Amino acid sequence: MKYYKSKIWRWQQKEKNQNHNGLAGSFVVRLYQEFLDGKTTDYIKRIFEKEGVRNWDGGTKWQATTLMSMLENEKYKGDALLQKSYTVDFLTKKRTQNKGEIQMFYVEDDHDAIISKRIWECVQLEIKRRKKYLEEHGTNSYSHRPESNSFASKIICGDCNKVFARKGWRSSTGVDRKVWQCSERYKVKGVMGCANRHVEEETLIKAYLMAWNALVENREDFMEQWTEQLQSENLLEGYRAEKFIEYTDGAELLTEMDTDFMLKTLDHIKVFEDGTLLVVFLDGTEIECKNEEE
User: Fold this and answer.
1) pLDDT tens digits, 59-113
2) Is the dihedral of CA 36, 39, 45, 47 positive or negative?
């Protein structure tokens, strides 16, 4: 117990020292915010390492699994789950994870919180939402290297509900194109699977920009929906509504793609055979666009 307390104290002291020294601020707070902003722990890892963000040991190397365990750890909201592990051999001091062999104790408000209980709960709901998303759309990656592939896992087939994958095509004139098609189309080599149409990446970008700008231009029409969502028992739903009110307040229309902002706002784009593109935002709003490309 003394070790546990001292560890918490060291983390909190590190947080105070970072703020006192005028550094970027709490990496824990930033981790939670970046995750709610649509980033994966893999992406956050790369951002932290690129920026030289230091962990509690002073190092700048991060692991995605460590970041995920931090997102799921109740200690950051001030609570404590005691006896997660226990000693199985007092001579060697070997410890093992407690899987129900002995009783665990949950203590609320055990120490000063770094993350508010509301934000912590929102993150847990977002983790569950992403797991469900992966299961529904038959993919094992929520977002893969969005720095170079913004729409990864966010384009969904309107026929089979699976994810689209990006392909590099070259025309007969030597022009390279980025095209998205259903991952089920040629799942078995040489055998046609899902017959849904392909879509150009430029068309997806235009659809996203058009749909977002429609939200901004018609903000007052959506305010009733968002205001109702603020009162939702689902904390994540209320959080999304709050953010969309913030994002659209006095916002200028988007004229070009901003990947980080897209991750904050877009859930997915569904592609249908007749050329319809359904843009679905994280607040639940759906806006339909028509793809006129041949």
Assistant:
1) 899 999 999 999 999 888 887 765 556 465 556 666 777 565 555 555 665 678 8
2) negative
Determine the 3-state secondary structure of 145 from DSSP: coil
Q: How far apart are CA 146 and CA 20, in angstroms?
A: 33
* CA 229 vs CA 88, 226, 284: distances in Å: 49, 5, 10
- Contact predicate 34/44, CB 8 Å: yes
- Token pair 């902003």 is found at 37
| Element (DSSP H or E) covering residue 106 | strand 105-107
Residue whose structure tokens are 């120490």: 111
Q: 138: which 2 tokens?
A: 């038959």
3-state secondary structure of 56: coil
What pLDDT digit, counting tens, does each position of 156-180 carry? 999 999 999 998 876 666 667 899 9
Q: Is 132 left (phi over 0), alpha (psi -120 to 50) or beta?
A: alpha
Amino acid, res. 270: K
Identify the CA nearest to 46 among candidates 63, 65, 59.
63
